[in-house]
Specification:
The structure holds 2 protein chains of 2 kinds.
Chain A lengths: L3 E11 L3 E11 L3 E5 L6 H9 L6 E6 L3 E2 L5 H4 L3 E4 L11 H6 L14 H13 L15 H14 L4 E5 L7 H17 L3 E5 L3 H7 L2 E6 L2 E7 H4 L2 H8 L2 E6 L5 E6 L2 H5 L2
Helix pairs in contact in A: 4-5
Chain B lengths: L5 H24 L7 H13 L7 H34 L11 H19 L8 H24 L7 H26 L5 H9 L10 H17 L1 H7 L3 H6 L4 H23 L5 H13 L3 H25 L8 H22 L1
Classes of the chains: A alpha/beta, B mainly alpha.
């Protein structure tokens, strides 16, 4: 039996124009799902809908397949769903520790304060993300990669079952990206999390995800295993470029965009 | 770790209240007639125990200085708290009811009310007047907040907060002119008093409206405290706050209304005293850090202490002449504003 943790059912959303059109999929516990798609394909909006930050025009997001987020309070949602936003918030006057412990907020009572247990949970997350030596540093003093780790730590401190990561590894060097995703994968397995990652790094997502969702123009083009999703045909349709794909011995798929001189000149 | 707990906040607040008491006592004793501490303590305990002592100084303390000390404390506490709230909301340490034009808007509400009341004559004598003036001030304050938002517009670039401040400053100078126009055109007898009130003045005798004003300030500050941690999280950014479970829209609306309400309430009595909402949160942050859960209670007492000191200076520096307290606070506040602005520009 599979256990559905989070389900999107016929979600639609528009600002001035439709951003997300009637998307449906479900995510299972202990898995990493990668969302790939061109800019403006509605990936970030889909993630925000799933986290309950914005409400869909139609459709609903269901926790455990039967609890609609639209019927839940924000604080309750935050005890089950954590998200690392793109360009996540940073409060320059806070220390790394003060920033991370804010992840306990959904678990605090109205006028509550963080207990020693909350501090322990925070320290554990900071250890996992290798930030313990910075706990007294100000958030403004740490590097871009460390900030991403700090945002991940804050999300872990929330102790949710579901983790949503938006452009989590953007602007980081390749080694750092691999390191971060390795960490995400380890945590997902250890804590049996349901993890959804939006990224432009097709090869990385291919290597680290269990399932892939391809999105363009607000619609889901494909949802399946890495090998099923990352085909020349699918990718060419989505990005209007030619791709070469190669199945590696370990089952991973290697993807290369083919950018010919013709393609560069031909505008 | 310097952990925050209700016990810590309680003891810090108690210590500050002790400091406030000492400053208040000193303020009772300093003035054109100086009264020894022992005498005023004796007179105070006499009143508290119900056996007032006959002393010519009694009326100086109880009719003149004590009401003023209490009024100054109330006004200072309210403006400092409103300042801390606006700073959290706009994520800008320069926000303050005076800078944002909210105080000036509240004074316009008060003036419009007096003008209307004198036209309608009888209205002023009705019991409702006690609530009507603070209410008018609140409407003026709320109107200004709305207007500042409309002028500043909104976008996603994160520049909104700076534009809000500019809009506030512009609107404040505009409303000041309207205030002076209204007052001059209505042929008021007490021009000096009005001039002082426009700068922020605690020397005018209060009427019964002080009771609803006091209630509003205490109830509003308590309510604001309820949102202190949500405001901490909004400090990181609205998306982050939502992710961590804050109903951002609701919190922002309620905090705006309360902060305008307590600003309006005290401005209807004291006039727009400048920069208290800028100076006191800054001092409190330097001492106790940025967490609103400790900032809100401490800034409340800080506001009271600071305003008392400023007002005591205002009525003694040029003795027997008196300055409006707003002059003293502006003399301290304007340089601090420049300092914060430059530090923000460097950051």
């Amino acid at each position: 039996m599979t256990s559905v943790m989070l389900e999107a059912r016929n979600l639609s959303f528009s600002y001035q124009r439709p951003i997300v059109r009637d998307i449906s999929f479900s995510l299972e516990a202990g898995t990493i799902t990668g969302i790939i798609g061109p800019n403006g394909s509605g990936k970030t909006t889909a993630l925000r809908l799933l986290s309950g930050i914005i409400s869909p025009l139609s459709g609903d997001v269901l926790l455990w397949g039967d609890r609609p987020l639209s019927k839940m309070k924000r604080k309750e949602i935050a005890r089950h769903i954590a998200m690392v936003p793109q360009n996540g918030g940073v409060y320059q006057y806070q220390t790394v520790f003060q920033f991370a412990i804010q992840g306990r907020s959904p678990h605090l009572s109205l006028l509550g304060f963080e207990s020693p247990a909350d501090e322990e949970i925070t320290m554990e997350a900071l250890e996992m993300t290798q930030l313990t030596r910075y706990i007294r540093s100000r958030v403004s003093e740490i590097s871009g990669g460390e900030k991403q780790r700090l945002l991940l730590a804050r999300a872990l401190v929330q102790q949710t079952e579901i983790l949503l990561l938006d452009e989590f590894t953007a602007n980081l060097d390749i080694n750092y990206q691999v390191e971060l995703l390795r960490l995400v994968r380890r945590i997902t397995r250890e804590r049996n999390l349901t993890t959804l990652v939006v990224s432009h790094e097709i090869n990385l997502l291919g290597a680290f995800s269990d399932r892939i969702i391809l999105m363009s123009q607000g619609e889901i083009r494909h949802h399946g295993s890495v090998q099923e999703a990352l085909t020349q045909e699918h990718l060419s349709q989505m990005f209007s470029l030619n791709f070469s794909t190669r199945l590696l011995p370990d089952g991973n798929v290697e993807v290369l965009p083919i950018i010919t001189k013709d393609a560069l000149n031909n505008n | 770790m310097n952990r925050l707990s209700s016990a810590r906040i309680f003891w810090v607040s108690m210590a500050l209240l002790g400091a406030w008491f000492i400053v208040a006592l000193a303020s009772l004793n300093i003035g054109s007639v100086s009264i020894p501490v022992r005498t005023s303590l004796k007179l105070l305990t006499g009143h508290l125990t119900g056996n007032p002592i006959a002393d010519p100084l009694d009326s100086v303390i109880f009719s003149v200085r004590l009401p003023r000390v209490l009024l100054g404390s109330l006004v200072g506490a309210a403006l400092a708290t409103a300042g801390a709230a606006f700073q959290s909301l706009l994520r800008n340490p320069l926000a303050d009811p005076y800078v944002l034009g909210v105080s000036t808007g509240a004074s316009m509400g008060t003036i419009l009310y007096s003008v209307l009341a004198s036209w309608l004559g009888y209205m002023a004598n009705m019991g409702g007047a006690v609530y009507a003036r603070p209410l008018a001030a609140f409407l003026g304050a709320a109107f200004t907040v709305g207007a500042v938002y409309v002028i500043a517009g909104s976008d996603r670039s994160g520049e909104t907060s700076q534009r809000l401040l500019l809009a506030g400053i512009v609107l404040a100078s505009f409303l000041s002119s309207i205030n002076v126009f209204l007052l001059t055109s209505t042929n008021q007898a007490d021009l000096r008093g009005i001039f002082y009130w426009l700068i922020g003045d605690l020397s005018r005798p209060v009427d019964a409206s002080i009771y609803p004003v006091t209630f509003l300030v205490f109830a509003g500050s308590l309510l604001l405290y309820r949102f202190s941690h949500s405001l901490n999280l909004i400090g990181m950014g609205e998306i982050d706050a939502m992710i961590l479970g804050v109903e951002v829209g609701r919190v922002k609306t309620v905090v705006y209304i309360i902060a305008s309400l307590i600003t309006g309430a005290v401005v209807s009595v004291s006039g727009p005293i400048a920069y208290i909402g800028l100076i006191c949160p800054h001092l409190a942050r330097m001492m106790f850090g940025n967490d609103n859960r400790i900032l809100f209670p401490t800034v409340f007492v800080f506001g009271a202490i600071f305003t008392l000191v400023a007002d005591t200076l205002a009525r003694t520096v040029l003795s027997p002449a008196e300055l409006p307290v707003g002059i003293v606070t502006a003399l301290c506040g304007a340089p601090l504003f420049v300092y914060l602005l430059r530090r923000k520009a460097r950051a």
